[in-house]
Amino acid sequence: MALSKEFILLNKTGLHARPAANLVKTLNDFKSTSIKFAYNGKVVDGKSFISLTSLGAEKNAKITVIVEGPQEQEAIKTIEEMINNKFGEAEE
Amino acid sequence: MQLQGIIASEGISIGKLKKIGFKKIYTEKGSKAKEVFSILKQNLINKIESTKNISKETNEIFEIYKAILMDPYFEELIDKNLENGDNLSESIEASTVEIIDLMSSTNAYMKERSSDIQRLGIVLQNPINEIESGKFIFYNDSLAVIDFLSINVNLIEGIITQNGSKISHLAIWARNNNIPYVYNIDTTKLTDNSDSVITKDGKLIIEPPAEILNQLKEEKINRIKIIEKSMYFQKKNLFYKNKKITIAANIGSLEDGYVAAERKVNGVGLFRTEFMFLAKDEPLSEEEQYKIYKETANLFNDTVIIRTLDIGGDKELKYLNLEKELNPFLGIRGLRLSLEFRDLFKIQLRAILRAAYECNNIAIMFPMVTIEDEIKKAKSIIEECKKELSRENKNYKVPSIGIMIEVPSAALNADNLIESVDFMSIGTNDLIQYTMAMDRTNNKVSYLYLPHNNAVIKLIKNVIDVCHQNKKWVGMCGSMACEMIYYPLLLELGLDEFSMESSQISFINMYHTYLMEHNIANILPWNEKKIEILQNLLDDFWIWLKEKNFSRGGIIS
């Protein structure tokens, strides 16, 4: 049974190159867990940098994350932390 | 030979030209091609990972390159194109084009990443760019940071490309490393090893005469000294007499917005929207404008002031088919023109109102306001837009509304206009031109450009006083706001906000820090003879700056 959760992107530039690269690097640790990102009618692989950035999800975009596999809970938690952390983007 | 380009990273370069980033062709097909591809890919990943001594920013760019190289989707595309009969080079090119198409469908920022991906495909096939010793100005039609992977940053004197952008990674990287970079130069005209210079106004001069060369050499040394020092003055909150002073950026495009945000500027005091209109042969649609305003506002935490179209005077839009005016600076321009071309105005207002619903830091500003009735008319058009948007079930919000004070009568009459607006911003270029009756495009009368003239200062003082009496804030977005000599005077007069090109901000920051430690009394009441006091203050500042040494923590001695 897949797990899904909605998130609002909080960082200034949304899922642009740098946050996406960060995200992919982290999510690659969840090898046997499938991670999908859905936004604006598109569903893409969360471990593919190109696909993630092609979503064009900007600040305040509501995205849905769908995970399935042995590390579901952990993956969702990691994604949540990264989003809440604004992907480590400096904001002052 | 002299070629004018567009500045992506400001500075002065003196060196020989050298072309880098050549294509190399791999004709392998099928499974052999797949084998070669994985070797090339691994080689490049290794090379990226073994690059040492790189800054945080460069490291982030390299992480993005690695993310693309290791993306399973990239390999899928390569395989697909190989199966369609492409050879390896063709497959890499086709795959990068597909990736670019995918990413370009999103915002402007992502679009700029396309040159990175295109160059990644080329460098993947030819990663070696070893150069002998010496400093060079590197050029090619397109280049990306990855092209400089094997070149020591200290050997890069400057960068020239034909295609480019202010917000490409290369531009960001060049700015971070203080490497001058100019694009929009016809690189087919360039030949290797010719002695060249890049000037700080974005010219590439080939075989420059000795006197220009000597002058640039001196300028370059001074510049480096100042840049080194200015780095320690960014990101500070400025206060004067217990009041926060806002330093904001003037921008003419979304690109400029990204540059300002990267320079850690908190807000925008003037978004000159007409620049986007001047760059196109047809008006921008509501949707296009809405996206640009939203994306720009999201870059900043503080207010982003969107100035409505300021066309007319010295700026023309062909498709409006305006009649030639005998005296265009006194004719249909700024808000006057918007009130005349209501349809064009409404599209812009609707876009701003919709963006303001999404971003609560947007403000709107009307240019060239002369009388109260013009503000009333503009506001009634906003009311019309509100009704239309409600009817169409579109979300909107009316942001705070301000006006530019550029006309002397408006400056004198500020107490009458202030009731209709939330803030005022003084546009000094026109205010001085109108007050002194000097055409600012005519060099013969440029001696009359006197921001410190008693009449000009009286007008500015009146606007500031009226705003404060009415508990409203007042800024300045003309050139005077970044001319360092006037900064102490404007502080004393009580100006709340200074808006300028983002490249000037670190200088104003530095000067502010200096002024806080020194006495700036005796400036008011103003008298134009006191310009000497201002000049002495500034001279002392430059001497102080030369003598002091700085560290990350602040001043050492």
Radius of gyration of chain B: 26 Å
Rounded mean pLDDT of chain A is: 88
The SS-based structural class of chain A is alpha+beta
- The fourth-level CATH homologous superfamily of chain A is HPr-like
Any idea what the CATH superfamily of the largest domain in chain B is called? Phosphoenolpyruvate-binding domains
Please give the number of β-strands of chain B.
Answer: 19
The CATH architecture name of chain A reads 2-Layer Sandwich
Measured as a percent range, the helix fraction of chain A is 25-40%
- What is the strand content of chain A? 25-35%
Q: Could you tell me how far the N terminus lies from the C terminus of chain B, measured between alpha carbons in angstroms?
A: 46 Å
Strand order of the largest sheet of chain B: 1-8-7-3-4-5-6-2
Secondary-structure element string of chain A: EHEEHEH
SS summary, helix count of chain B: 21
* Stretches with pLDDT under 50, minimum 5 residues of chain A: none
Main pleated-sheet profile of chain B = 8 strands, mixed
Query: Shape of chain A from CA axes?
Result: globular
What is the CATH topology of chain A? Histidine-containing Protein, Chain: A
Pfam families (chain A): PTS-HPr
Keywords (chain A): Cytoplasm, Phosphotransferase system
Family (chain A): Belongs to the HPr family.
Main location (chain A): cytoplasm
